[in-house]
Design a protein that fits this description.
Blueprint (H helix, E strand, L loop, with lengths): L4 H8 L20 H13 L7 E6 L2 E3 L4 E8 L6 E7 L11 H5 E6 L4 E8 L5 E4 L2 E7 L6 E7 L3 E5 L8 H11 L12 E8 L11 H5 L5 E7 L4 E7 L7 E2 L2 E2 H18 L3 E7 L3 E5 L4 H13 L10 H11 L5 E5 L4 H16 L3 E7 L2 H7 L5 H26 L3 E5 L4 H14 L4
Parallel strand pairs: 2-10, 13-16, 13-18, 18-19, 19-20
Antiparallel strand pairs: 1-3, 3-6, 4-5, 4-8, 7-10, 8-9, 11-12, 14-15, 16-17
Helix pairs in contact: 4-6, 4-12, 6-7, 6-12, 8-9, 9-11, 10-11
């Protein structure tokens, strides 16, 4: 069979036997005079790489699980057309496994004095900042025998934000909030409620809500309706210590805690409450304070994007002291931390009274769904042992939760899928009971 393409050209020039040439190499193993001349001409006609102008544009942020498009504009300022292959390098976590090659490599031709755009589509697999590395350009001559290659640094950063998957629960929680907020008046009494209106007594109403003065002025018994107070202060405290690094499902506990915090923040800001965020292990990792209602959620999402679990033990005394400085007045402090016995009993319980004597404390913990699955296992000896181990672990968590409740702490312990709506329900229950 007669040689074709580049191999045929080499054979015509009297070069090495066809098949010794490897087109992936940028050099030649052995040449004769005609081939040397051809390669020199090809090299001379290849557009220079260093004179290219490269700029970026496109997305600067994306939610985890979505895609971001970053456009690279290449300007060929030389007098020769550019025939090139381009690799736009980003960190490996910028794509799903196995998709980097197709997404980051481009082939294009740019006439002299013109520009072209190529788009790199990112599909990040982790939160945080993804920074562009280098752009490698391989410029080919018209014969494809020789190439020029160079790199350009074209900075760009895409911030990968938390996905906020619990957003789907927000409409239902807002409907419940509207009931508590007086749009549908309800009878509740407590230290954190405001008078809303009067209405006629119906059997089953709390007798403590009867307004005797209003009753004396009319022919029927009148009762007061109450609505939860607005402008309460809520401090979300994310524990970023080693226990937050434990994986539940496909993600660290910290990610599920952040998702629950975002749902609560969205709900509380709609209720007219002020929401702040503190992320802490042995020092402050993030602090968001004093944001207006419309800016709370974007500020929290931006602050959480770069948070990572730290493989160190959380300093409970430091966390408590920082929380008290951040919330000097009576507030709802929401601790998103662990229910493991050792960190709670040795770290949190000795200093918990400093929080509970001034604030209402709500603790939310992410439970491992694998424990529940193990507890249901039966069928063989190994399965029974797993079930017994899971039951022991759950009993220990329940005992720790009961210790916290005896100190006046409201405890939420739920799996990653359920912790966000459970935390929102606990907040609404506290609001309904007038405990905020």
């Amino acid at each position: 069979m007669a040689p074709t393409g580049r191999a045929a050209l080499l054979a015509a020039l009297g070069s090495l036997p066809v098949g010794i040439w490897d087109p992936g190499w940028t050099g030649i193993l052995a040449v004769n005079a005609p081939l040397a001349v051809a390669c020199a001409c090809d090299f001379a006609l290849a557009a220079p790489v260093r004179k290219l102008g490269l700029t970026r544009s496109g997305d600067t942020s994306v939610r985890l699980g979505a895609t971001a498009d970053v456009t690279l504009t290449i300007t060929n300022a030389s007098r020769r057309p550019l025939r090139a292959r381009i690799r736009d390098a980003w960190p490996p976590s910028s794509w799903a496994p196995g998709t980097e090659t197709a997404a980051s490599r481009h082939r294009l031709t740019i006439p002299a004095g013109e520009r072209r755009r190529v788009t790199t589509r990112l599909n990040p697999t982790r939160r945080g900042d993804r920074r562009a590395d280098r752009v490698t350009v391989r410029s080919y001559g018209p014969l494809g025998l020789f190439t020029r290659q160079g790199t350009h640094q074209v900075p760009w950063t895409v911030r990968v934000l938390p996905p906020f998957t619990s957003r789907k629960h927000l409409p239902a929680k807002l409907a419940r909030l509207r009931e508590l907020d007086g749009r549908t008046s309800v009878l509740t009494r407590g230290e954190g409620t405001e008078f809303d209106s009067l209405r006629a007594y119906v059997p089953g109403d709390d007798t403590r809500s009867i307004d005797w003065r209003a009753t004396a002025r009319q022919s029927e018994v009148a009762v007061r309706t109450w609505r939860p107070e607005r402008d309460r202060h809520i401090l979300l405290v994310l524990d970023t210590g080693r226990t937050s690094a434990g994986r539940v499902g496909d993600a660290p506990r910290l990610d599920a805690s952040m998702d629950a915090a975002l749902l609560l923040a969205a709900l509380a800001s709609r209720a007219g409450d002020r929401v702040d965020l503190l992320a802490y292990d042995r020092r402050v990792r993030a602090l968001v304070q004093g944001r207006a209602a419309g800016d709370v959620l974007p500020s929290l999402v931006g602050a959480m994007a770069t948070l990572e679990p730290e493989l160190i033990e959380t300093d409970a005394r430091g966390l408590t002291a920082t929380a008290l400085r951040t919330a000097p007045r009576r507030s709802l402090i929401v601790l998103l931390t662990t229910l493991d016995a050792a960190p709670v009993e040795e770290g949190l319980l000795p200093v918990l009274s400093r929080l509970t004597q001034r604030h209402t404390v709500l603790l939310a913990s992410v439970a491992d769904p694998h424990i529940a699955a193990m507890s249901r296992a039966r069928g063989d000896v190994d399965a029974v042992y797993e079930a017994a181990s899971a039951a022991q672990a759950q009993t220990e968590r329940d005992r720790t939760a009961e210790q916290l409740r005896r100190h006046g702490v409201t405890v939420v312990d739920a799996t990653p899928e359920d912790v966000a709506p459970a935390l929102a329900d606990a907040y609404l229950a506290l609001k309904s009971a007038g405990r905020l």
